[in-house]
Design goal:
234 residues, six-stranded antiparallel barrel, two-stranded antiparallel sheet, 32% strand
């Protein structure tokens, strides 16, 4: 059964490439180590030592002995003759060493002592820097929140509502300040999640308490930017 194309013509297989008609067949060729056999070559290069101008010094002990300083200076020699029992004379040479002479003490004249009054001025700037607390406290406005949880008795669904109390304020320490979160430590009172904070600092933003962690007899409040911005003006 013949195969047909979409237009109804008989489908024919593609023939050989016309460019292959003029291709030459290689009859003579040489393969160079196609089996990856190992080959060894002998190095026939004659290595000649290079002449060096470096002079080898004497041994360390000899050099140390030459540079050893003399402790004393010989001034003269004293020869003593002694006669032994066998009538032989033996020369004994003893070296006389020079001893350092102490310089004569000069007479110390009595000097007059004058008293000078020195006025001491307190460095107020240094005192303020030394007495400055390690952490600066920040005044913070707060709108405390209370989260109430309600559960549907019929279906079991849980609903959470936030109820805000009266505005208050406290002092805290800003630990971390970033664009999207801030961490504040305080020991004034426990602040629940959902409370709105407004630190009275350079960054004028409202923050919502997201996490509360007990730390160092106080609490660390992790806050996120708040979409609710209440007014704390009197």
């Amino acid at each position: 059964m013949a195969l047909y194309n979409k237009d109804g013509s008989v489908y024919t297989l593609s023939g050989p490439n016309p460019a292959m008609k003029e291709q030459d067949i290689w009859g003579d060729f040489v393969l160079h180590n196609m089996k990856w056999n190992s080959e060894k070559y002998k190095d026939t290069m004659d290595l000649k030592p290079v002449k060096s101008d470096i002079k080898v010094k004497e041994s360390f002990l000899q050099e140390l002995e030459k540079t050893k300083p003399e402790k004393t200076k010989v001034v003269g020699k004293v020869i003593e003759n002694s006669v032994e029992q066998n009538s032989t004379i033996e020369e004994k040479v003893s070296q006389v060493y020079e001893t350092p002479q102490q310089a004569p003490q000069e007479s110390i004249e009595e000097t007059k002592i004058y008293e000078r009054k020195v006025e001491v001025h307190q460095d107020k700037q240094r005192i303020e820097e030394e007495t400055k607390p390690e952490f600066e406290k920040t005044f913070i406005h707060c709108l405390p929140a209370t989260i109430r949880v309600k559960k549907d008795d019929l279906y079991g669904d849980v609903f959470k509502t936030v109820q805000y109390g009266s505005p208050t304020s406290f002092e805290g320490i800003v630990l971390v300040q970033e664009d999207l979160f801030v961490k504040i430590w305080t020991d004034a009172f426990q602040i629940d999640k959902g409370s709105i904070l407004y630190p009275k600092a350079n960054f004028k933003r409202w923050w919502k308490v997201n996490e509360v962690e007990s730390k160092a007899k106080g609490w660390i409040l992790t806050c996120m930017p708040s979409d609710y911005q209440p007014s704390f003006t009197d």
